[in-house]
Structures are given as structure tokens and as C-alpha cells.
Recover the amino acids of this structure.
């Protein structure tokens, strides 16, 4: 009897919330920089391509940073980010409405910080969007239950906006930081360029790497081949572990050329950066950096992450392209 009740619950959950195997995030291998999705800033002055100059600056409250030249952006202007298929039909896949929150001077330009105003995701059909909305509410409810380790309970709007933001594939890198004789190497995806040499990363307030980074103000970002994803995720524990010595790193490293930081020997690309601005924004601290060294060592597919609903769209688009060829 208990087994029957359990099966019924699973069936109801699957019908209401989607397949049991659904995951919020998927890892994929892409060339860097990714060329699947373009991101456009829309406003009264027309669209502007910001594919390679936007980043999540804080998770809660959800804040999106966009590096721009000095343009007239005010709180009254209605702006939005539009996510488009770069090839094929150039289909609009999602939109996030923006409201200006703050700005930071970055060289000759500005880093504009926006709160999210609304979000629409077109990767799912209407019934699927309804089911996904229920799933988001279930996830939010679960995150607020006693004993859950997460310290961030996103709002409904933040949950919807994240699913739209991760339509655009985001690279996962390993960050190396060192101060004196201790160091840390940990994975991050809240990163991104905001200009030619300017770069941002947002680190959670609870990360044990935060004080180390604030003191050293120098970092190395290593691009990672997709084949090393298991090792990358295993290093996630370093966000809550104390700093360690170089000889405790569990894989082969080499020394970065400018700052002498330990970086994985298997890195495809290493960028060394100097932190110029640190801004607390909520759940995260935002680090604005200048890129001082950028060396590529290998080509190939790099580790990226996308949202599950965009993965469904990718699979459906692939089937639509293949099936007409089969009929021919």
C-alpha cells in the first residue's frame, strides 16, 4: 500500500512539475566565447549588443551588471535584456526587464547595476511554462524548510529571471587566489567581462575565500575543458573550507606568469587580474577587475552551464532540424 501511494505521489509530481529527471542546470561543452545566444540591451535609444559585457553582480537582490560607455541611463528609462538565438531563425528566447540601481566608474566607461523588473521566458510552451512555474514555487518552498542549508531564498521574480539569464551559456572557471603561504582554488560562474579589459566576479558573503581575495586583490581565472567538470564540482567545497598551502592542491599545477599563482596544468586559458573596486551589494560582494595578462594554451570545448529549460529548447530545436532532413 505504501509503495502504491509513493508511486501515485511521483506521478502527480511529474505531471504537475515536469519530469522527475528535470535539472535546473546542465553542463555543456562549447568554444569560448560561446556563440549560441546573443544578448541585447533594448531601450529608447535602440538595441545594443551586450553579449560579452554583462554579468550577475549579486544573486539576492538579483542585480545585473552591464558595462557600457557613458550613456544617458536614468531610473525612468524602461530597459530590457533580450536573449536571442544567434543562428537559425534568430528566435527571441527570453527577456528581462531592468531598473537602474547604481553605477560604478570603470575606466572611461561605466558599470551599470540594474534590478530586475520582470522576466519572460519563451523556451517553453504555455502549458510547460505553467508547470515550470509550479516547480519554481516548489523549489522556493523547499528552500525555506527547516534544515535547508541554503541561506538565500529567491523571490518568484528572481527565480524566473535566473532561468532566463541562463539561457545564455555561462562559463564555469576555476579561480586561484593566494596571500602569503596560503591559497584557494574554487569554481565560479557569476563572472563575466564588462569591457575590453574590465571583468567582474560576484562572490558570496559566506565564502571562506572572500577574506583571502580582499587581502590579495590579485586572481587568476582558468578556463576549464569540459572533460574536467567532475573535478571542478568537487572543488566547490573550497567555498566553505579554510585556505590551504600549495602542496595540498590535489592536481598538477603550474605557476601563472604575472602573479605566480597556482593554476591547473590542464587550463585552456589563464587570465590574471587586479581587483580595482569591491562593492557589497547584498548576498554577494562584487569585485571589479582589470585584466593584466591573458594567455591561451589550448582550444577545444570548455565547461559551460545553461538552465534546464533552455536545454529542453536546444533538444527540441535539434529534433526540428533533424526530422525534416529525415523526411527528405
Amino acid at each position: 500500500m505504501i509503495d502504491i501511494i509513493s508511486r501515485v505521489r511521483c506521478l502527480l509530481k511529474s505531471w504537475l512539475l515536469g519530469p522527475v529527471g528535470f535539472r535546473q542546470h546542465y553542463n555543456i561543452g562549447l568554444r569560448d566565447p560561446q556563440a549560441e545566444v546573443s544578448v541585447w540591451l533594448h531601450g529608447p535609444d535602440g538595441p545594443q549588443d551586450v553579449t560579452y559585457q554583462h554579468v550577475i553582480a549579486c544573486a539576492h537582490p538579483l542585480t545585473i551588471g552591464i558595462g557600457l560607455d557613458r550613456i544617458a541611463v536614468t531610473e525612468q528609462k524602461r530597459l530590457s535584456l533580450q536573449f536571442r538565438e544567434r543562428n537559425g531563425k534568430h528566435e527571441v528566447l527570453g527577456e528581462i526587464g531592468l531598473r537602474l540601481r547604481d553605477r560604478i566608474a570603470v575606466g572611461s566607461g561605466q558599470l551599470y547595476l540594474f534590478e530586475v523588473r520582470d522576466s519572460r521566458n519563451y523556451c517553453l510552451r504555455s502549458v510547460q511554462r505553467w508547470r515550470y512555474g509550479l516547480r519554481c514555487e516548489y523549489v522556493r518552498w523547499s528552500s525555506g524548510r527547516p534544515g535547508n542549508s541554503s541561506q538565500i531564498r529567491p523571490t518568484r521574480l528572481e527565480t524566473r529571471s535566473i532561468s532566463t539569464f541562463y539561457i545564455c551559456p555561462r562559463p564555469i572557471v576555476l579561480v586561484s587566489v593566494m596571500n602569503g603561504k596560503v591559497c584557494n582554488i574554487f569554481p565560479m560562474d557569476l563572472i563575466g567581462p564588462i569591457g575590453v579589459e574590465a571583468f567582474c566576479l560576484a562572490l558570496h558573503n559566506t565564502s571562506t575565500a572572500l577574506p583571502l581575495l580582499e587581502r590579495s586583490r590579485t586572481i587568476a581565472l582558468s578556463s576549464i575543458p569540459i572533460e574536467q567538470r567532475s573535478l571542478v564540482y568537487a572543488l566547490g567545497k573550497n567555498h566553505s573550507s579554510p585556505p590551504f598551502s600549495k602542496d595540498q592542491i590535489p592536481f598538477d599545477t603550474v605557476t601563472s606568469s604575472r602573479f605566480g599563482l597556482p593554476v591547473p596544468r590542464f587550463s585552456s586559458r589563464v587570465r590574471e587580474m587586479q581587483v580595482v573596486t569591491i562593492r557589497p551589494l547584498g548576498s554577494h560582494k562584487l569585485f571589479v577587475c582589470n585584466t593584466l595578462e591573458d594567455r591561451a594554451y589550448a582550444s577545444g570545448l570548455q565547461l559551460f552551464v545553461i538552465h534546464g529549460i533552455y536545454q529542453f529548447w536546444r533538444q527540441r530545436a535539434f529534433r526540428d532540424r533533424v526530422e525534416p532532413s529525415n523526411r527528405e
